Amino acid sequence: MTSYISHLECTVCGKNYPHEQLIGISPCCEKVLFARYDLAKLGREVDRDVFVSRPDTMWRYAELLPVNDPDNIVTLGEGGTPLIKSHNLAEQLGMRNLYIKEEGLNPTGTFKARGISAAVSKAVELKVDGFTMPSAGNAAGAAAAYGARSGMETKVFMPQDAPDSNKKETLVAGSELNLVQGLINDAGREAVAVAKELGFFDLSTLKEPYRAEGKKSMGLEMVQQLGWKMPDAIIYPTGGGTGIIGMYKGFKELLELGWIEGKQPKFISIQADGCQPVVRAFNEGADSSQMWENATTKADGLRVPHPFADYLILEAIRATGGTAIAVSDQEMIDAMYEMATAEGIFPAPEGAATLVGLKKLLDQKFLDPEESVVLFNTGSGYKYLDLISGTKRS
Ligand SMILES: *Cc1c(COP(=O)(O)O)cnc(C)c1O
Ligand SMILES: [Zn+2]
Known about the structure:
This protein is 36% helix and 16% strand. By secondary structure, the protein is an alpha/beta fold.
């Protein structure tokens, strides 16, 4: 089990960089860097069936993850989450192949654990001194946990109105918590400045190449769980876009390896009414987004007013014939009850938003009930108990 990583590549101009050095965004274009692998060699040397017998964490896909020496892996058992076939919601909606990828079962209660495990592990391999992490919420909790596990200092920067659960999980894991006036973008500016000053690795979304690699593992796992087949559509709540970008990249790699066949699922991006820069850019036919002013939503994972990797999110949606729509906070909260009542899965509002999106797109006939669809519940509702009134709904 060893990584086939070969180099890093600028997503705009294609310039290559070595992966043996600490590097965030591409120096050439100041855009996202992707990790690249020697897929020809991997395809010759490894059979996809080897993954099935390995322990059920995302590191079973070590060949397609960026860490060379397994001793550097910082793990809390992330990944290996169930793909739950829906019975009750599917029946209500007249569908036969509806699934929920239950990412709420990850360490720290969200899929953020996957990306942070990958980035922290690679940073350990490159011998950094510590981490900075700007976060709207859940990424901070994950950074604090994996920072603690790695034994390295972690400084978290959060909007001051971030959820209590995220502040507390950060503090309880021993990270320094800095509350910032403003939104995630403001927190990001501070984190970068401190990282520069101290020589720390800044874990900002897609401003380093490795978190997307960890999130890619959601897609690898999902196709393996479907018997090495892709669904017709993936509905994904989109903030910074790491999940969509990572999975789209991962499917390309699997296709190039010849481990799967067919066409990529339609990527459907769900955002909040109060913060929908990707939806607006998609509808305008633009290649990048504009800052969404006065962003508000209770789904903190979606409160990203100007995603740095907007151009890559839009590419994944358009190249796969997907779409992007927004839903209201109230619809999300109602759908938290609905998913929990119908399937026993208590989703984060972000995950519940995918159910709202599914219904709207069936109504609009963008999706057909015959299609196979995977909803991503990106986090656990247990982190958002303040959104739940505590009374039963019929
Ligand atoms: C961060 C977060 C998102 C958005 O994730 P991206 O992949 O960066 O777009 C969605 N849901 C939850 C629960 C989150 O914490
Ligand atoms: Zn470039």
